[in-house]
Amino acid sequence: xxxxxxxxxxxxxxxxxxxxxxxxxxxxxxxxxxxxxxxxxxxxxxxxxxxxxxxxxxxxxxxxxxxxxxxxxxxxxxxxxxxxxxxxxxxxxxxxxxxxxxxxxxxxxxxxxxxxxxxxxxxxxxxxxxxxxxxxxxxxxxxxxxxxxxxxxxxxxxxxxxxxxxxxxxxxxxxxxxxxxxxxxxxxxxxxxxxxxxxxxxxxxx
Amino acid sequence: xxxxxxxxxxxxxxxxxxxxxxxxxxxxxxxxxxxxxxxxxxxxxxxxxxxxxxxxxxxxxxxxxxxxxxxxxxxxxxxxxxxxxxxxxxxxxxxxxxxxxxxxxxxxxxxxxxxxxxxxxxxxxxxxxxxxxxxxxxxxxxxxxxxxxxxxxxxxxxxxxxxxxxxxxxxxxxxx
Lengths: 206, 176
Known about the structure:
The complex is a heterodimer. By secondary structure, chain A is mostly helical.
């Protein structure tokens, strides 16, 4: 039996087998390289808000005033007296002889912008925004496949984030008024919104 | 596009401790730090934007609820990814959805195009059958071992290996 086993015949593999193995190895290497370049996607913009609703409220920490803790009030009393003495001493020796007179001036700038024309322009803009939003929603309702495309998601997310940012700026304007920095930020956001909307509509029409 | 004004240098350990105390800002920072990478994983596995968002939501809720169990034996990202993958796979309901190898697949497919890009590969991965796509992603993209994938999906290691091989051949056929 042992002799027969050693005399079993040998067979050759198909001649192109090494080429096939090499092709598989090359394909694996190539695949590993391209996998590193796979695109990243963002979740929908409001997802954090949904997650936040399900989370427990922040842990309440019970803080016990230090002066109520045993054997510490004497220490705090001592520290307070020492701090008071240092403060009064410093003030007496280092007090500057100030002769400076402080004068406060203020001015109120009157806006010369035609309020009527302005409100008309904003109304036109908001109508255009609404029309664009209606168009996008209608397209997505009619053709779900188009709106499943990653690039459409990305742009819709950007649009939602820009809208939220715009609302934040408007809220800040109600508090701080027409601050130049806020107006600049608003103009920038509106421009970005317009660009993203245009890109999105072009994509949906293509 | 807009990121929170939280210190980017905050260490993973400190972030975890603050999240465990339900510090909402820390929890949001953790979400912002990992959501894109994790969503990409979930999106590829489920192949559906809404399902991927659901999976990510469930995963992050689970992350915050079970953060006490995270013992720093792996990186935080790897731990979160395991949860995201499980949630995405659960959404897939893969039972019995592993394609059998096509007889014609014994033919040697041509090599990949030299100019192949990540976006093209991503598009081709989306066309794979659900089971093969999921296992291919877990092994080749996420770096899990066949044994881990087999446990995760309740299949044999042999099935895991054959599905990856099947997926690779299909990809080579479609991207050559």
